[in-house]
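Justification of computing resources. Each target in the renewal requires a structure prediction run like the one illustrated here; the chain below, 171 residues long, is used simply to show the kind of job we budget for.
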Amino acid sequence: GDAATHQIFSINRSGSATPAVYIGNDSNHNALIASNNTVLRFGKDYTGSFSEYVRIDTSGNVGIGTTTPNSKLEVAGTAGTAIISVNNTTAGRSGSFGIDSNGVYIQNSNNGDYFDLKNATGTSRFRLVYDNNTFLNTTYTSVGSLTASGSKLSVFGNLSVGSTYGYRDWE
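Resulting structure tokens:
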């Protein structure tokens, strides 16, 4: 961390000259909100009852919805609710990642949308196209091309089935 900080505003613990939390800036004039080697909690206090929403622990882990984050970012929610939502207001699309009673899910905002896994350059390498249902048994999966043919599984190129690495040209 930065050794040179300028504390503009600080709050001390009762009977201590050491700030419990302070607002200031570092030697490069970047803004700081810091605690003195303690957990930093964000929330609201309504009639004397504090509700915590975000926590940064002493190792730098951030928790949203949890008081014990076990990784750099841990987001917790209740079953059946989206844990993380992403919106593209220009395209009018959104998606969410969540957990329900059946397990982990990824959900698009519109039926007919697709789910892509892309490489570092943004090229789609795996695509699931939905046919207005969200069940895997009605999803068209395409391998080797981004065009699903209407079959449950479309493979473009050579295909190996089982442990033999030969191929069969099905055309």
